[in-house]
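New to this. Explain the following:
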Amino acid sequence: MGVQLGKIVSGRTIERGELSGRKIAIDAYNWLYQFLTIIRDRETGEPLKAPDGRITSHISGILYRTARLIETGIKPVWVFDGEPPEFKSVVEERKKIREEARERYEEALKAGKTDELFLAAQQATVLTEDMVNDAKRLIELMGLPVVQAPSEGEAECAFLCSTGKVFATASQDFDSLLFGSPRIVRNLSISERRKVSGMYVKVEPELIELERVLSDLKLTREQLVVVCMLMGTDYNPGIKGIGPKRAVELVRKFKDPTEVFSAVDWDSQFEGKTVEPEKILNFFLHPPVSDAEIKFRKPDENGLLEMLVGEMGFSEERVRKVLEILSKPVQTSLSVFG
Protein backbone atom coordinates (compact mmCIF):
# COMPACT_ATOMS: atom_id res chain seq x y z
CA MET A 1 0.00 0.00 0.00
CA GLY A 2 2.57 2.57 1.09
CA VAL A 3 1.89 5.99 2.58
CA GLN A 4 -0.19 8.34 0.43
CA LEU A 5 2.02 11.42 0.17
CA GLY A 6 1.62 12.11 -3.54
CA LYS A 7 -0.74 15.04 -3.03
CA ILE A 8 1.58 17.00 -0.74
CA VAL A 9 5.05 15.83 -1.78
CA SER A 10 6.70 16.52 -5.10
CA GLY A 11 10.18 16.09 -6.45
CA ARG A 12 12.00 17.13 -9.56
CA THR A 13 12.34 15.29 -12.83
CA ILE A 14 15.82 14.06 -13.69
CA GLU A 15 17.40 12.19 -16.58
CA ARG A 16 18.44 8.60 -15.92
CA GLY A 17 21.95 9.54 -17.04
CA GLU A 18 22.24 11.93 -14.10
CA LEU A 19 22.36 8.86 -11.84
CA SER A 20 25.27 7.34 -13.75
CA GLY A 21 27.96 5.98 -11.46
CA ARG A 22 25.63 6.08 -8.45
CA LYS A 23 24.73 3.14 -6.23
CA ILE A 24 20.95 2.97 -5.87
CA ALA A 25 19.20 0.81 -3.25
CA ILE A 26 16.34 -1.10 -4.85
CA ASP A 27 13.28 -1.87 -2.72
CA ALA A 28 13.17 -5.42 -4.09
CA TYR A 29 9.66 -6.44 -3.04
CA ASN A 30 8.24 -3.21 -4.43
CA TRP A 31 9.82 -3.90 -7.83
CA LEU A 32 9.07 -7.63 -7.87
CA TYR A 33 5.37 -6.99 -7.30
CA GLN A 34 5.42 -4.49 -10.18
CA PHE A 35 7.00 -7.05 -12.51
CA LEU A 36 4.64 -9.81 -11.44
CA THR A 37 1.67 -7.51 -11.92
CA ILE A 38 2.59 -6.04 -15.29
CA ILE A 39 4.45 -8.80 -17.14
CA ARG A 40 1.50 -11.05 -18.01
CA ASP A 41 -0.41 -12.41 -20.97
CA ARG A 42 -2.79 -9.61 -21.96
CA GLU A 43 -5.64 -12.01 -22.76
CA THR A 44 -5.46 -14.64 -20.03
CA GLY A 45 -3.75 -12.64 -17.29
CA GLU A 46 -1.33 -15.50 -16.74
CA PRO A 47 2.28 -14.68 -15.77
CA LEU A 48 5.29 -15.89 -17.75
CA LYS A 49 6.33 -19.41 -16.80
CA ALA A 50 9.32 -21.70 -17.24
CA PRO A 51 8.90 -25.17 -18.80
CA ASP A 52 8.73 -26.65 -15.29
CA GLY A 53 5.87 -24.31 -14.36
CA ARG A 54 7.84 -21.84 -12.27
CA ILE A 55 6.68 -18.23 -12.63
CA THR A 56 9.30 -16.10 -14.37
CA SER A 57 7.63 -12.71 -14.88
CA HIS A 58 9.71 -11.21 -12.09
CA ILE A 59 12.86 -12.88 -13.42
CA SER A 60 12.27 -11.29 -16.82
CA GLY A 61 11.68 -7.93 -15.16
CA ILE A 62 14.84 -8.12 -13.08
CA LEU A 63 17.00 -9.25 -16.00
CA TYR A 64 16.01 -6.68 -18.60
CA ARG A 65 15.26 -3.71 -16.35
CA THR A 66 18.54 -4.17 -14.48
CA ALA A 67 20.41 -4.39 -17.79
CA ARG A 68 18.89 -1.05 -18.81
CA LEU A 69 19.94 0.53 -15.51
CA ILE A 70 23.49 -0.77 -15.79
CA GLU A 71 23.64 0.37 -19.41
CA THR A 72 22.85 3.86 -18.08
CA GLY A 73 25.65 3.55 -15.53
CA ILE A 74 23.44 2.96 -12.47
CA LYS A 75 24.72 0.47 -9.88
CA PRO A 76 21.69 -1.33 -8.36
CA VAL A 77 21.84 -2.75 -4.83
CA TRP A 78 18.88 -5.08 -4.25
CA VAL A 79 17.39 -4.99 -0.74
CA PHE A 80 14.95 -7.71 0.37
CA ASP A 81 12.42 -7.60 3.19
CA GLY A 82 12.94 -9.55 6.38
CA GLU A 83 10.36 -10.17 9.10
CA PRO A 84 7.67 -7.46 9.30
CA PRO A 85 6.71 -6.08 12.72
CA GLU A 86 3.90 -8.06 14.37
CA PHE A 87 1.55 -5.09 14.07
CA LYS A 88 1.78 -4.79 10.26
CA SER A 89 -1.94 -4.60 9.50
CA VAL A 90 -1.60 -4.41 5.72
CA VAL A 91 -0.44 -8.05 5.54
CA GLU A 92 -3.87 -9.46 6.39
CA GLU A 93 -5.60 -6.81 4.30
CA ARG A 94 -3.57 -7.73 1.22
CA LYS A 95 -4.19 -11.43 1.81
CA LYS A 96 -7.95 -10.84 1.81
CA ILE A 97 -7.76 -8.74 -1.38
CA ARG A 98 -5.74 -11.46 -3.14
CA GLU A 99 -8.18 -14.19 -2.12
CA GLU A 100 -11.16 -12.21 -3.38
CA ALA A 101 -9.34 -11.40 -6.64
CA ARG A 102 -8.50 -15.06 -7.17
CA GLU A 103 -12.20 -15.93 -6.87
CA ARG A 104 -13.08 -13.24 -9.43
CA TYR A 105 -10.38 -14.55 -11.75
CA GLU A 106 -11.74 -18.11 -11.62
CA GLU A 107 -15.28 -16.85 -12.27
CA ALA A 108 -14.15 -14.70 -15.21
CA LEU A 109 -12.15 -17.63 -16.64
CA LYS A 110 -15.19 -19.92 -16.54
CA ALA A 111 -17.44 -17.26 -18.06
CA GLY A 112 -14.92 -16.36 -20.76
CA LYS A 113 -14.80 -12.70 -19.66
CA THR A 114 -11.35 -11.87 -20.99
CA ASP A 115 -11.75 -8.17 -20.20
CA GLU A 116 -11.91 -8.99 -16.47
CA LEU A 117 -9.18 -11.65 -16.39
CA PHE A 118 -6.14 -9.38 -16.51
CA LEU A 119 -7.22 -7.04 -13.70
CA ALA A 120 -8.29 -9.90 -11.44
CA ALA A 121 -5.03 -11.74 -12.10
CA GLN A 122 -3.02 -8.62 -11.24
CA GLN A 123 -4.84 -8.16 -7.94
CA ALA A 124 -4.36 -11.84 -7.08
CA THR A 125 -0.56 -11.59 -7.40
CA VAL A 126 1.38 -13.47 -4.73
CA LEU A 127 5.13 -13.31 -4.13
CA THR A 128 6.22 -16.70 -2.81
CA GLU A 129 9.41 -17.75 -1.06
CA ASP A 130 10.48 -19.72 -4.15
CA MET A 131 10.05 -16.62 -6.32
CA VAL A 132 12.16 -14.57 -3.91
CA ASN A 133 14.86 -17.24 -3.87
CA ASP A 134 14.94 -17.34 -7.67
CA ALA A 135 15.21 -13.54 -7.73
CA LYS A 136 18.11 -13.51 -5.26
CA ARG A 137 19.90 -16.25 -7.20
CA LEU A 138 19.57 -14.31 -10.46
CA ILE A 139 20.80 -11.04 -8.95
CA GLU A 140 23.82 -12.71 -7.37
CA LEU A 141 24.68 -14.46 -10.67
CA MET A 142 24.55 -11.03 -12.30
CA GLY A 143 27.28 -9.95 -9.86
CA LEU A 144 25.08 -7.47 -8.00
CA PRO A 145 24.74 -7.02 -4.23
CA VAL A 146 21.84 -8.68 -2.43
CA VAL A 147 21.10 -7.21 0.99
CA GLN A 148 18.83 -9.11 3.37
CA ALA A 149 17.09 -6.65 5.68
CA PRO A 150 16.32 -7.79 9.23
CA SER A 151 12.85 -6.26 8.89
CA GLU A 152 11.41 -3.80 6.37
CA GLY A 153 13.37 -3.44 3.13
CA GLU A 154 12.49 0.25 2.87
CA ALA A 155 13.99 0.87 6.31
CA GLU A 156 17.20 -0.88 5.25
CA CYS A 157 17.30 1.15 2.01
CA ALA A 158 16.92 4.33 4.06
CA PHE A 159 19.76 3.28 6.36
CA LEU A 160 22.09 2.51 3.46
CA CYS A 161 21.29 5.90 1.95
CA SER A 162 21.63 7.86 5.20
CA THR A 163 25.03 6.24 5.90
CA GLY A 164 26.33 7.05 2.42
CA LYS A 165 26.59 3.47 1.15
CA VAL A 166 24.13 4.27 -1.64
CA PHE A 167 22.99 7.54 -3.18
CA ALA A 168 19.23 7.02 -3.07
CA THR A 169 16.40 4.57 -2.55
CA ALA A 170 14.47 3.48 -5.65
CA SER A 171 10.80 2.80 -4.91
CA GLN A 172 7.37 3.90 -6.08
CA ASP A 173 6.32 4.24 -2.43
CA PHE A 174 7.21 7.14 -0.14
CA ASP A 175 7.77 5.01 2.96
CA SER A 176 11.56 5.28 2.80
CA LEU A 177 11.24 9.01 3.48
CA LEU A 178 9.59 8.21 6.80
CA PHE A 179 12.41 5.80 7.62
CA GLY A 180 14.85 8.65 7.01
CA SER A 181 16.13 8.11 3.46
CA PRO A 182 17.66 11.44 2.35
CA ARG A 183 16.62 10.75 -1.25
CA ILE A 184 14.22 8.49 -3.12
CA VAL A 185 13.92 8.00 -6.87
CA ARG A 186 10.56 7.10 -8.36
CA ASN A 187 9.78 5.78 -11.88
CA LEU A 188 13.14 4.04 -12.20
CA SER A 189 11.70 0.54 -12.57
CA ILE A 190 9.06 1.30 -15.16
CA SER A 191 9.36 1.69 -18.91
CA GLU A 192 10.70 4.96 -20.26
CA ARG A 193 7.46 5.27 -22.20
CA ARG A 194 3.93 4.89 -20.82
CA LYS A 195 0.68 4.66 -22.77
CA VAL A 196 -1.76 7.37 -21.68
CA SER A 197 -5.10 7.88 -23.47
CA GLY A 198 -3.88 5.92 -26.45
CA MET A 199 -0.64 7.88 -26.76
CA TYR A 200 2.86 7.13 -25.54
CA VAL A 201 4.42 9.69 -23.21
CA LYS A 202 7.99 9.81 -21.92
CA VAL A 203 8.43 8.85 -18.27
CA GLU A 204 11.45 10.25 -16.45
CA PRO A 205 12.65 9.44 -12.93
CA GLU A 206 11.58 11.76 -10.12
CA LEU A 207 14.04 12.64 -7.38
CA ILE A 208 12.50 13.46 -4.00
CA GLU A 209 14.75 14.87 -1.28
CA LEU A 210 13.73 14.54 2.35
CA GLU A 211 15.31 17.82 3.44
CA ARG A 212 13.38 19.73 0.78
CA VAL A 213 10.12 17.94 1.62
CA LEU A 214 10.43 18.83 5.30
CA SER A 215 11.32 22.42 4.45
CA ASP A 216 8.35 22.83 2.10
CA LEU A 217 5.91 21.33 4.61
CA LYS A 218 7.54 23.10 7.58
CA LEU A 219 7.67 19.81 9.47
CA THR A 220 10.27 17.68 11.20
CA ARG A 221 10.74 14.08 10.10
CA GLU A 222 8.95 12.91 13.25
CA GLN A 223 6.02 15.18 12.41
CA LEU A 224 5.94 13.89 8.83
CA VAL A 225 5.61 10.37 10.21
CA VAL A 226 2.71 11.52 12.39
CA VAL A 227 1.02 13.11 9.36
CA CYS A 228 1.20 9.78 7.55
CA MET A 229 -0.02 7.86 10.57
CA LEU A 230 -3.16 10.01 10.64
CA MET A 231 -3.78 9.22 6.95
CA GLY A 232 -2.79 5.55 7.17
CA THR A 233 0.34 3.45 6.85
CA ASP A 234 1.14 -0.24 6.44
CA TYR A 235 0.76 -0.46 10.22
CA ASN A 236 -2.55 1.36 10.72
CA PRO A 237 -5.58 1.99 8.47
CA GLY A 238 -5.78 5.75 9.03
CA ILE A 239 -8.46 7.86 10.68
CA LYS A 240 -11.63 8.39 8.67
CA GLY A 241 -12.05 11.89 7.35
CA ILE A 242 -8.41 12.88 7.70
CA GLY A 243 -6.60 13.48 4.43
CA PRO A 244 -3.22 15.06 3.70
CA LYS A 245 -4.30 18.68 4.20
CA ARG A 246 -6.13 18.04 7.47
CA ALA A 247 -3.31 15.86 8.79
CA VAL A 248 -0.73 18.57 8.16
CA GLU A 249 -2.98 21.17 9.81
CA LEU A 250 -3.35 19.04 12.94
CA VAL A 251 0.37 18.35 13.24
CA ARG A 252 1.28 22.00 12.75
CA LYS A 253 -1.29 23.03 15.33
CA PHE A 254 -0.39 20.58 18.11
CA LYS A 255 3.24 19.91 17.10
CA ASP A 256 3.90 17.30 19.81
CA PRO A 257 2.93 13.75 18.67
CA THR A 258 1.27 12.91 21.98
CA GLU A 259 -0.98 15.95 21.73
CA VAL A 260 -1.81 15.16 18.11
CA PHE A 261 -2.90 11.62 18.92
CA SER A 262 -4.89 12.87 21.92
CA ALA A 263 -6.77 15.28 19.65
CA VAL A 264 -8.09 12.53 17.35
CA ASP A 265 -10.03 9.31 17.87
CA TRP A 266 -7.07 7.00 17.29
CA ASP A 267 -8.87 3.80 18.29
CA SER A 268 -11.71 4.33 15.78
CA GLN A 269 -9.60 3.10 12.83
CA PHE A 270 -9.10 -0.39 14.24
CA GLU A 271 -11.73 -3.11 14.00
CA GLY A 272 -9.77 -5.48 16.19
CA LYS A 273 -6.76 -4.98 18.43
CA THR A 274 -5.57 -1.39 18.64
CA VAL A 275 -1.92 -0.64 17.94
CA GLU A 276 -0.61 2.13 20.14
CA PRO A 277 0.59 5.13 18.09
CA GLU A 278 3.86 5.36 20.00
CA LYS A 279 4.78 1.84 18.87
CA ILE A 280 4.30 2.70 15.19
CA LEU A 281 6.07 6.06 15.50
CA ASN A 282 9.05 4.49 17.23
CA PHE A 283 9.29 1.80 14.54
CA PHE A 284 9.52 4.41 11.79
CA LEU A 285 12.12 6.41 13.70
CA HIS A 286 14.20 3.46 14.98
CA PRO A 287 13.62 0.41 12.74
CA PRO A 288 15.79 -2.73 12.84
CA VAL A 289 18.53 -2.38 10.20
CA SER A 290 21.79 -4.11 9.29
CA ASP A 291 25.15 -2.54 8.41
CA ALA A 292 25.45 -4.56 5.20
CA GLU A 293 28.57 -4.77 3.07
CA ILE A 294 28.06 -3.70 -0.55
CA LYS A 295 30.11 -5.69 -3.06
CA PHE A 296 29.92 -5.85 -6.85
CA ARG A 297 31.40 -8.84 -8.69
CA LYS A 298 31.86 -10.10 -12.22
CA PRO A 299 28.73 -11.81 -13.60
CA ASP A 300 28.71 -15.62 -13.63
CA GLU A 301 28.18 -16.22 -17.34
CA ASN A 302 27.81 -20.00 -17.14
CA GLY A 303 25.54 -19.77 -14.12
CA LEU A 304 23.26 -17.24 -15.83
CA LEU A 305 23.03 -19.31 -19.01
CA GLU A 306 22.26 -22.45 -17.03
CA MET A 307 19.54 -20.76 -14.97
CA LEU A 308 17.89 -18.61 -17.61
CA VAL A 309 18.33 -20.65 -20.79
CA GLY A 310 18.70 -24.18 -19.47
CA GLU A 311 16.13 -24.09 -16.66
CA MET A 312 13.74 -21.29 -17.58
CA GLY A 313 13.70 -21.33 -21.38
CA PHE A 314 14.88 -17.76 -21.99
CA SER A 315 16.32 -16.85 -25.38
CA GLU A 316 20.06 -17.50 -25.33
CA GLU A 317 20.63 -14.65 -27.77
CA ARG A 318 18.87 -12.16 -25.50
CA VAL A 319 20.63 -13.43 -22.38
CA ARG A 320 24.02 -13.10 -24.07
CA LYS A 321 23.17 -9.49 -24.99
CA VAL A 322 22.51 -8.81 -21.31
CA LEU A 323 25.82 -10.47 -20.43
CA GLU A 324 27.61 -8.07 -22.77
CA ILE A 325 26.08 -5.16 -20.89
CA LEU A 326 26.91 -6.63 -17.47
CA SER A 327 30.53 -7.19 -18.47
CA LYS A 328 31.20 -3.62 -19.54
CA PRO A 329 32.77 -1.23 -17.02
CA VAL A 330 30.41 1.45 -15.70
CA GLN A 331 31.00 4.78 -17.41
CA THR A 332 30.37 7.62 -14.98
CA SER A 333 28.90 10.70 -16.64
CA LEU A 334 28.91 14.25 -15.35
CA SER A 335 26.16 14.58 -12.77
CA VAL A 336 24.20 17.50 -11.40
CA PHE A 337 24.78 16.01 -7.96
CA GLY A 338 28.56 16.53 -8.02
User: Anything to note?
Assistant: The longest helix spans residues 90-111.
